[in-house]
Design goal:
Radius of gyration: 30 Å
Oligomer: single chain
Strand content: 25-35%
Order of helices and strands: HEEEEEEEEEEEEEEEEHHHEEEEEEH
Structural class: mainly beta
Shape: elongated
Distance between the termini: 61 Å
């Protein structure tokens, strides 16, 4: 029973008001002083004040304030009753919004086709997150594990509150074509905000507050992902106008490697079936050096991905890719993955910022310390096109069960 209800109930069945008549009492919140014990007689249209409530009684239902000596006092963020100390937008008690930056932007990219498009990365530590738009498109939110929090996999989620990255995300959809996402934060991991385009994008407004020390890595990560250099611009405190956009310097070009020999021809239906259907094509080139005893091979994974980056390390090439569509999968894939090729001159080579259909295998050690997506030499890596998409889907029908 709520504390105030309990105090009113102490007078149930006891005569009051100078008569022998008794009443049942419940709290009444319409009286001027909310720290008086004002109780309503059940079934009657009057209330009676029994003096002050006991110290520690909430001033009103759901309020943060407590009654002390007949006064309603709120606790500040410093834990003191009656204190006016409040958290600033950066989460600092009594701060002045000077330990974080306000990121704000309107995403206007139209998108070349219907489907999911990245809007922004919401980094770990973000607070007071808001995104809104007015269209028939739908905002989608993906967690750090690559799973959608809402509106994923072409399914529109109901409006409501969702748990994600250590905070609550409030998703609202008005009767008109309007959607909003709000979260107080701070987030405990990165989130990826996307939009499911069904019509031209009129603009998606988003904003959040980010600790100063996290803003540089956020900019760098967004640049590595190959997104537009028109990144959100910070501002010092909320009342100040937005600063003029800063120009991010162009990426340092990757040095051109020594000429590589021509790659073997890997076209044809037989080649596609070989890699899609799960032969031992990985073992043919891994050899004992890269595939020692104790390591297990997961059946092939076939997916569509965009190449975001490429690094040559010793005699290997590591591609950073963004997974866009999965055709065949026996092991979980994250939104961002690394794909390794066993050569300084991989065949076929993958060009930056292009979409490919890839058939790779995951190499996993029993203790989980080694986990790689492997793309074989002369393996299946074809530029994505509607025709190639159809061929891959057709290959699935010819694979043995």
């Amino acid at each position: 029973m709520p504390f105030r209800d309990l105090q009113c109930a102490l007078y149930n069945g006891h005569p009051v008001l100078g008569t022998q008549k008794t009443y049942q009492w419940v709290p009444f919140y319409g009286a001027p002083n909310q720290c008086d014990l004002n109780c309503l007689a059940v079934g009657h249209d009057f209330y009676h004040s029994f003096g002050r409530v006991l110290d520690g009684t909430p001033c009103s239902p759901g309020a943060q304030g407590l009654c002390v000596a007949g006064r309603c006092l709120s606790a500040g963020c410093d834990g003191l009753l009656g204190s006016d100390a409040r958290e600033d937008r950066c989460g600092r008690c009594g701060g002045a919004n000077d330990s974080c930056l306000f990121v704000q932007r309107v995403f206007r990219d139209a998108g070349a086709f219907a489907g999911y498009w990245n809007v922004t990365l919401i980094p770990e530590g973000a607070r007071h997150i808001r995104a809104a738009h007015r269209s028939r498109n739908h905002l989608a939110l993906m967690g750090g594990d690559g799973r959608y929090v809402l509106n994923g996999n072409w399914v529109v989620s109901p409006a409501g509150t969702y748990e994600a990255a250590g905070t609550r995300v409030v998703y609202t959809r008005a009767t008109g074509p309007e959607e909003t996402l709000r979260a107080a934060g701070p987030t405990s991991e990165d989130l990826l905000l996307q939009v499911l385009l069904q019509e031209p994008n009129p603009g998606i407004e988003f904003e959040f507050w980010l600790p100063r020390e996290r803003y540089g890595p956020f900019q760098a990560q967004a640049q590595v992902l190959g997104w537009s250099p028109r990144q959100p611009q910070p501002r010092e405190v909320e009342p100040q106008p937005l600063e003029s956009p800063t120009v991010i310097p162009p990426r340092t070009p990757i040095p051109t490697p020594e000429p590589c020999p021509p790659c073997p021809d890997t076209r044809g239906r037989a080649h596609r079936l070989l890699h899609y259907c799960g032969s031992d094509f990985v073992g043919a080139w891994l050899g004992p050096r890269l595939c020692p005893a104790g390591l297990s091979m997961v059946p092939p994974t076939v997916f569509r991905a965009r190449v975001l980056g490429r690094i040559r390390q010793a005699q290997e090439t590591r591609y950073e890719v963004r997974v866009q569509l999965i055709y065949k999968n026996r092991s979980p894939l994250r939104a961002l993955e690394y794909v390794w090729a066993p050569s300084h001159c991989p065949c076929p080579p993958l060009a930056l910022h292009r979409d490919y259909l890839l058939a790779a295998r995951r190499l996993i050690s029993p203790d989980g310390t080694q986990d790689r997506l492997l793309l074989p030499h002369a393996g299946y890596a074809r530029l994505w096109s509607p025709a190639e998409d159809s061929r891959v889907r057709l290959a699935a029908r010819h694979c043995p069960l």
